[in-house]
Amino acid sequence: MSVPPDRGVSRRSFLKGSAVAGIATTGITAAANAAPPPVASFGPGEHEITLAINGKPRKVAVETRTTLLDALRDGLDLTGAKKICDRGACGGCTVLLDGTPITACMTLAMDAVGHELRTVEGLTDGDKVHPLVENFVHCDAMQCGFCTPGMVMSSLACLERRGKPTVEQMRHDLAGNLCRCGTYGRVMEAITRTAGGGK
Amino acid sequence: MTSPSQPRDGVEITMGYRALPGQQEDRLEKRTVQPAAGDAPPWDANTTFAVVGRDLDRVDGLAKASGRAKYAYDMTFPGLLQAMILRSKVARGKLTGLELDEARRMPGIAAVVALKEIGAKVRFVGDGIAAVAGTNVHLVRDAIEKIRADYEIEEHNVDYLVAENAPLLAGDGQIDEPWPEKDAADVEAALAKAAIQHTATYRVEVQTHSSLETHGGVAKWNGNELDLWLSTQATFGCRGELMRALQGKGIDIAALTIHAEFVGGGFGSKISAGVEGLAVCLLAHAAQAPVKLMLDRFEEHTTTGNRPGALMQARAGVDEKGKIVAFDWRSWGHAGFTGSGGVAVPNYYTGDAKVRRDHKDLNCDTDPPRPMRAPGYPQGWFGAELFLDELATKAGIDPLTFRLQNDREQIRQDQWRFAAQRFGWEQGRARQNAANARVLWGVGLSSARWGNLGNPGRPPHGITCRIHQDGSVETRSGAQDIGVGLKTVMAMLTAEELGIDVKLVKATTGHTSDPSGPASGGSTVTPSLSPATRHAAFLGKQQLVELVAKHLGVPVADVDCKGGSVGTTKARLPWAEACKLIGPNPIDVRGQRFANYDGRPFHGSQCGVQMAEVAIDTTTGFVRVTRMFGIQDCGLVIAKKLAESQVLGAMIQGVSYALHEQRIMDKRSGRMLNGDFLRYKITGSQDLPELECHMHSLANGHDSVGAAGLGEPPSVASAAAIANAVFHALGTPVRHLPITPDKVLQALASRKG
User: Model-level pTM?
Assistant: First the structure.
């Protein structure tokens, strides 16, 4: 699978944001071409960080080893992102980091500091519902619903990046999201309907 | 909505269905049924519906798609502890020592409980040994590592095909053992007389359920009362199971309420609360704090059951007219250390034939099977339907013609013809693959059947219906909606009976404080609870009608409740006005699930047909399912859009079963090698065929609603249809699921040779 140029946190930014940046970058300073990073030390135990989630700053206590997924779910009670495989294999915990879909289970909470996060909760505000979410309901793009929030977020990224995605593009962009009930076809219908302005 | 009137000597109803699109003949029969005293009058083929059968949205769809729905995994409470289970790394042996004290002393640890007694047998890699609860998962994992478990290790075997009583296999995987002698005479005589004979061996691998929400729950004690948010498909079964288990441990428990309002899949694996369900209750009791215990993905693959592997052999014969005259079948199932690896085969092709069937379960040291969406059927249908295609090919008969000649079910006769036309069967069969083509195309078909018309339960299942003075209506069941759409079905039936907009109805499921319902097993829930839902609304309606009659000063018999208003032909109150008469205490009634009507329904089981098209890359051996069509009957179709979702989903799971899924065991350690979603492949968006389905709604006349089960039947046919398409494309069958590229390349090589 080819990696689009605008996709993902680069290795460089990953290392910059890492809790152990001072040590980890020493071997590749030349390659990263970075100024000597500040040596910061956290832990053991929890410390407080601030994450920018759905446009609002949220404080949460994490250990250096806490994943973004655990911080969202256990620390902030944002349980739309699901813990399904905890190994980046199923996409159930997909959130957008600076607009790019990432698996929150494979991201350390600390690495998300300084980035804009969007979670599925941000698509609904009281009675105001994002058209994509409405179309998931209209197209019945769910059964048990456990993969659905992750599917919604990958679908959102697909729409925002591609405007009117083709079937092949949708297949590609949803390839990281597993659904056991078998809702892929109707998820693509929901995306297509949203792209066409349907509600 | 109109219904036949209900005289005391029974009600005449019209059962059956009107001609399928493109067909001519209605299949309707009249029959007189005797509803139980006080039950709602039956709906039938002449009933016109305002709500039922329409394309309405899933009532909890927004909760799910917005991320607001709270599953067991999402529950949290102040002071919630996290928990994990220590699992056996030994496949077979005895627990000889268990040292928990060091774990108890680790930071943040609140409770440690043993799940196995010293001296108890260890049955498979993953058997539960002990459980730990603490402040967070990291600390719990640290503590788990400090538990010392000692075992007396015995030799193990994880391959059922070398277990005791396993059949002898030849080098090519064919069964090398004589057919049993018991009852052999008739079938052998018929075989000897047959014009064409055929024998072959089939095999399927172990598939895991792979529910996305893992097993587990959150337990919270309040004195001697326990609330448990459990990821389950059997709220009442698990309540009984855990009450008995906790009492057996000497724990003072007065009440246990299970909560399962949203469940992230089950497919048959979540009928028992399991060791994790008991462990979380014990830990919360010991810690005197709420505890969450959810399995991780490896545990989900390795300790929560599976669809068993099976080895199957068939021999049969057809006469000159293409009729099956003899059918001999034997199978061996992978039963794990205990359990059933049963296999079912279609019985409607062999009406007049001499038939014999034999099955044996083979035990070995693995996690035992649990029911999985039509237990035994996808295995047996794969073997039997592929065998039938081979037999038909040998006899020079088109597979569809062969089915039409032998299938004794009228419903499916119509479905075969309908599917063939919609799918383009003849064109698909006629398509020629060039001799040197890189891509080979093929089409295949399979039948489906299941038989569940619901049951009353003991004591009888019920549904609560409440009508409030603000016009809102509640319908409540303690049974679970694991994604099939029970809430939507209940809301639609209630709205239909009351003649109101479905948006006024709030359906709630999954709390055992509400009336009981069955487990989501065997496609039981909708057929069992739909007549009870209707009965509850029917009783509520009667009370409202009485209030309105009194208010209007007219006889009760003149008042009806439809089109969003209540009253007579002359004077009517809008629904909201009528409900104001109720006062502060709602109408609160309980509907009952009566027994099915005496006598024969239109059809005792469910029929379906699926067709599949594949494209096979001869260079890589990669099979792609390009197209599938399915038609499925489930009695009265209530929530059409959701019913379609279930059928389409079953087809996708069928692609997965046919092409991708297999549990791979390490013989030496007894451990599953691919217990994660990186190496255990399930169908993803890139594998998705073009799918289409047609819901075949019929009036079955077995209760006041006439709904039949839908969870299992569409999952019976898919893998078989795909395997037959592969056979058509290659010209040689692949008799071993999953049909992975290596097997395809082997088949191609054998064809060239």
Answer: 0.94
